[in-house]
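Write out this protein's structure.
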Amino acid sequence: MYRYYPNNQLYLAVSGEQIYALGPITNNQVVTLGKLSDYACFVSLASCAPPPVPTPSATLNAPNSGKAPWKLATPITVALKDSAGNLVSGALSCASANTVALTVAADCSSVTGHRLGQQTITVSGGGVVANTSVKVIPQAQPLGTQGATQSSNMVVTPAGRVLAWGQNYGGVLGQGKTYSQLTSLSFPTPVKDQTGLSELSGIVAVSVGDGASALALTEDGEVWSWGDSSSLGRTANNGDALPGRVRNAADNGSLSGIVAVSVGDDNALALADDGTVYSWGGYSGQEGGSSTKRVPGQVRAVNGSGALGNVVAISAGWNWSAALTADGKVVTWGFNSSARTGQGVTTSTVDVPGYVLRDGDGVAISDIVAISAGYNFGLALTSAGQVYGWGDNSYGQLGQNTSSNVHSRAVLVKGADGTGQLGRIKMVAAGGWHALALDQDGKVWSWGRGVDGQLGDGPNRPTGNEWLLPRAVVSQLGTGQLADIGAIVAGYDFSMALATDGSTLIWGEGYSGKLDQGGTNTNDLAVPTPVKDTAGTGTLSLAPISVWPNLTRRGR
């Protein structure tokens, strides 16, 4: 059945349920207009829905499938369509539906997320207005080793799996087995989920600490914990060889809204997306002194009143903790042996958080962009690329060309020749008794204790097994200087690096297979050596550094 309309030279035809049109307005092409029931309502029908009303739509494309890491400006592209489905040409403008949660460039070029979760963007142009959204997620950090005395390693893959190897004290390798059931793993092995039947997934960052415990952060801002210590953040028990969710402060649900995690020994930290810090375990910085806290609570402010806020980065050392504020200052608390809190005091514990002070004038160090809390000392990186150190200096780990004197306040690490200061640094890592630094050229420096090869100095082993000033970490050939590196971490007596191509390198003390060289190999390595993959036949490759924004852990 068809009808011709001479006024506009249009033919309409009905065949079955479909309506077709042909004429000048269709460029003399047959087009389908839809079903007859969309345009007509018959008495025989019990009800008749109105025809659908087309609405404008907006789409957003951002790196990582429409996701934006917390506090990082993320480039985006936006497309806007009118109600007829046509792209709107010309300039578009964007605005955030909630500026506390998300800021958007007016020209739609980038977004910066301040709260986790799906956030709405209003797009307008050519008289058309529509909404789209972006998911704000925590910043991904693939290397999970901390500067404590553990003998295990963990990394996160781009697919969100956690790989673990080394010693299995307390079930820290997350295989659902105790140490008596599984002593160690020689190659990277996926951590299991809470059922023990599948792999833990959806992870963006991991931290493994001295107390045989580990924390993993999900894309949605929740935290999993496993291992054997009171730093699991759960009241049910002190140990679990499989992951379980860290509880919230009220102990009536899961901790949420978290953007970073760090575990030291008995102390654990979580940074919330509103800039507050949760802690649990020992030396928590909460009300009640250094007594053990089973579930997370907010860390006190520097003056002891209210909660510590405006924090952009955290780092847990051996029973002490550090936080970096948005105004570039470093706040510390906890066990203060060797004056590791850097506050100029020698008391055994610092229960109320305070600022790290500069040696000489006692003023709080400032303009800091990254921090690292080690076993008994700390490091802080300035925006100018210089490095502060404080705490124990028994092996020259503060880079002062001496291996004596505790520094209760922060001093600048000296240059490699002993004059001036180390400079052009973009990442620091504090280990047990040694330190690492990554410079702007992707080269690695080390100083401090080197008896186990953790300095990566190859055949250039120092007398007394320590370097008192920064020295070059050698290449995989044992010569020159290690280069093309994107990130570094320092364990108690070993070191690890992620190359710009995504491959992983490790060196130092080889006890219990923590260097991932297969079998029962426990040899020390003083030369950076590729970490083996899960099969033990190739090199573990995570992803090129382009996949990991802010890999150098800058908090500002």
